[in-house]
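>> Question from a student workshop board

For tomorrow's exercise we were told to take the sequence and the ligand below, predict the bound structure, and bring the output to class. My setup keeps failing. Could a helper post the expected result so I can at least see what it should look like? The ligand is heme C.
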Amino acid sequence: MDGVERVAAVLLGAIVAAGLIGQPAARAEEPPPVWAYPMAAKGTVPPPDDGTVRRVPDSTQGYTLTQIRDLFFALDWRPEAHPPMPSIVALGRKPNLRACGSCHRPEGVGGPENASLAGLPAAYLRRQIDDYRSGARSTAVPARAHVFRMIAALNELTAAEIDQAVGYYAALKLPARIKVVESDVVPTSTVPNWYYTPKHDGTTEPLGDRIVEMPDDEDGFVNRDTRVTFTAHVPRGSVARGERLVAGHDAERVPACAGCHGDDLRGTDEIPPIAGRSPSMIVRQLYEFKTGLRHGAMAEPMKANTSRMTVADMTAIAAYLATLPP
Ligand code: HEC
Ligand code: HEC
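>> Workshop helper replied:
Here is what the output should look like for this input. Compare the format with yours to find the bug.
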């Protein structure tokens, strides 16, 4: 062995010892935190429409369950609460372009089952639409059909319709509506559709390492009332742990967030706000950056930032971020 070979052998030994090679594809990823992707059990049949006209507080409108479930119609309980919707947001276009507002709501508040679009920077919204269309953004749980329904919708948008949808949602403001509660147990929950709700049988179940986010008023949520608030049950100690990570106290593993996302974590012209948004949605995004399921035009910094995060880190970060005002 000459000097160079010896150095190379020593280096190789160090690399193998560090486990960087020798274990194909490096360390196996942690499996997706499926609790952040709730789905009804196979074969769950939604209750039939009994024809009742449903109402919500402070609205003169009334809708049946069939109208509420129609994805080509954005239920609009309070038309005075937002600017006029572009037709693509209100109605979409059959057969594939389901109305943005049917899932993300006319006010853009979304729900834990999708994402809030209100107040996202226009450049960011546009980039996400491009990334979904090019295949650079996907989901870790492909059985969540509504992501693919949306991608099918996005694929049909004309350039002018993208401008309309982006302009509409970027101009709205996201209200605060998430309460974070640390606990060891949570009311025993069930997943009727894409969301958790308590079973209302008086029992509890261990929360474990999950975040379980539930609407405070399930009827209001089913009726898609945009004023419904949510309680996010998060593991004990996670808020303080998340705050330290977000502030960069363990920066070798998890860099501070404010440098890019803004001092108040409410985003910039290019970079999305992360404060006060659905914590299960934040966990999904961090996991998807880490595993390369989000590898779009500007995903590189987040792929690096998440590369050493564990799912437990993501959970703590999301718990803390949800306590901040949006
Ligand atoms: C069938 C329901 C559905 C429809 C219709 C829908 N979306 Fe979505 N959208 C989703 C889901 C679900 C997600 C979040 C996926 C996840 O958890 O990663 C999402 C996420 C997004 C995001 C990413 C937000 C972020 O913070 O990164 C954008 C942007 C978006 N949608 C835009 C639109 C636009 C524009 C339309 C109308 C053309 C639309 N969506 C229609 C379900 C829908
Ligand atoms: C070096 C700059 C940088 C730093 C530091 C950074 N981010 Fe980001 N982050 C970005 C960019 C850029 C995007 C948009 C990515 C895209 O468009 O695909 C983003 C997007 C995100 C998203 C997706 C939001 C959504 O609506 O889907 C989350 C969540 C996020 N960052 C969380 C964090 C957290 C938590 C931290 C700190 C631990 C952090 N980021 C630190 C640059 C950064």
